[in-house]
Amino acid sequence: MERPDPELMRKLVKYTSIPFEFFILIGGGAWLGSYLDKKFSTSHHLLTVIFAIFGLFIGFYHVYKSLKNDKL
What we know:
Helix 2 packs antiparallel against helix 3. This protein has one domain (14-69). By secondary structure, the protein is mainly α. The mean pLDDT is 90. The chain has 3 helices and no strands. The chain is 81% helix and 0% strand. It has helices at residues 6-16, 18-40, 46-69. The longest helix has 24 residues, at 46-69.
């Protein structure tokens, strides 16, 4: 049996981890925003939304940098 290409395996692991990174960044931002909403008693969960969107943008930026540096 032929061994798989190590470079291909590294890229597969890297790109299959992207959804988990998005989940962690968005969930972490939402958790931090929720914590700050409770701490400062803000209404309408404004900080939760702001930090969740900020996590989303960070996730897209991370994907952009990963795709820019790697060539499939």
